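Q: Given only this backbone (428 positions), what sequence would you predict?
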């Protein structure tokens, strides 16, 4: 998410982007479930204790509002509130539900104050409301506008109730009002600072998540996903062996004279276009790109993820590469062509280095695949006898007969092209 989207108004404490605000609200709703349930249970316990003390100690001083059945009603209401926190509606209307909870708890705070004697009411009768304000601003996780509204409304209701009943008046009423409004103002300041810190943490965690995702993407651009996970899990050297893979080499024909007549910028753009097409084909056909060396491209099928059709997958990608290079040539006006070589056999694969590391392959199979490319034919796929034997009847193969391969001696090789396509002849 961009910095602009995460910009926050310091006065209203809202993000400029509605989507960011919605994500923040949902995250806070999820985080607030446990504290809210604790707050409701704490209120139930305190309400029970205060009411029982009032009934047992101040027996005979109670009106209908102070009878024990009122405690049962209040506890039942709190049980419904706790159950409501498990609903889907709570997650999407979190602040409205919490505001309702706050009003219910506020009513019980006023009721608890009412249950004490007149002597205690004038001196310490506001204690239940002080506890309520602590719960409201400390545990309820209401955001600033809703918390402020609930706090001011509750204090006003308390003052209005006792003024209307005549139980508080004059200096006593003024003292209660000063204490409760002062504590409420302090709670508003604390609530503001808490929400500001929470929103800053939300921004920081989003930025950290984006950086982690960016690092993950960069790592996956360098290493196969399974290898990246192993590298993150352990510092041990990564080395694997596979008996059945197909290695693909491709090289742009006539690249040296092409590079001599093009500007560096144009040359890089052309190579980027070609290799981007090749990368897309590797992803489509399930091959692992190993590296590019100049104008050469190397990929493998069958490692790190083993697959029985590794030769077929490599052949399909090779045919796609011929089509891709023709398409790029037509778009750019360049006479582009590639030689492609395939060979199947065992390899050793692993990660080398600790800085600018790379996932690479070693073994005679790699060397032979490179020879298949260098001894191949422009515009065709040149494969070894081992690869041809694995391809079956899915592809059109043309035997080249014995070919003298540098470092390998005489080999029987084949040209592979799409079924029905004319076979190229000759040597690059």
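A: Predicted residues:
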């Amino acid at each position: 998410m961009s910095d602009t989207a995460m910009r926050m108004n310091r006065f209203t404490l809202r993000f400029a982007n509605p989507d960011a605000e919605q994500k923040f609200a949902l995250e806070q709703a999820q985080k607030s479930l446990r504290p809210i349930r604790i707050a409701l249970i704490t209120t139930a316990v305190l309400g029970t204790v205060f009411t029982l003390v009032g009934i047992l100690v101040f027996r005979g001083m109670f009106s209908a509002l102070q009878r024990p059945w009122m405690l049962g009603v209040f506890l039942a209401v709190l049980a419904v509130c706790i159950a409501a926190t498990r609903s889907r509606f709570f997650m999407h209307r979190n602040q409205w539900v919490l505001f309702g909870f706050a009003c219910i708890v506020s009513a019980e705070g006023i009721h608890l104050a009412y249950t004490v004697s007149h002597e205690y009411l004038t001196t310490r009768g506001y204690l239940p409301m002080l506890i309520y304000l602590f719960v409201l601003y400390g545990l309820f996780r209401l955001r600033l506008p809703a918390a402020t509204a609930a706090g001011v409304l509750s204090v006003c209701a308390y003052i209005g109730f006792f003024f209307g009943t005549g139980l508080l008046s004059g200096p006593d009423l003024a003292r209660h009002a000063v204490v409760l409004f002062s504590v409420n103002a302090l709670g508003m300041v604390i609530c503001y600072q808490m929400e500001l810190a929470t929103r800053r943490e939300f921004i920081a965690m989003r930025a950290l998540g984006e950086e982690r995702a960016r690092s993950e993407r960069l790592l996956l651009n360098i290493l196969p996903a399974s290898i990246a996970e192993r590298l993150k899990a352990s510092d041990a050297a990564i080395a694997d062996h596979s008996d059945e893979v197909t290695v693909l080499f491709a090289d742009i024909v006539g690249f040296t004279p092409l590079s001599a007549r093009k500007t560096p910028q144009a040359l890089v753009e052309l190579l980027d276009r070609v290799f981007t097409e090749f990368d897309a084909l590797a992803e489509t056909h399930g091959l692992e790109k190993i590296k590019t060396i100049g104008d050469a491209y190397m990929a493998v099928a069958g490692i790190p993820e083993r697959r029985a059709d590794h030769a077929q997958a490599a052949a399909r990608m090779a045919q796609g590469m011929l089509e891709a290079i023709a398409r790029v040539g037509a778009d750019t006006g360049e006479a582009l062509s590639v030689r492609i070589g395939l060979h199947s056999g065992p390899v050793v694969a692993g990660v080398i280095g600790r800085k600018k590391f790379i996932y690479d392959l070693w073994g005679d199979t790699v060397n032979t695949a490179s020879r298949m490319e260098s001894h191949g034919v422009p515009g065709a796929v040149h494969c070894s006898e081992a690869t041809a034997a694995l391809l079956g009847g899915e592809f059109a193969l043309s035997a080249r007969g014995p070919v003298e391969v540098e470092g390998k001696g005489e080999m029987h090789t084949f040209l592979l092209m799409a079924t029905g396509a004319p076979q190229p002849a000759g040597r690059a």
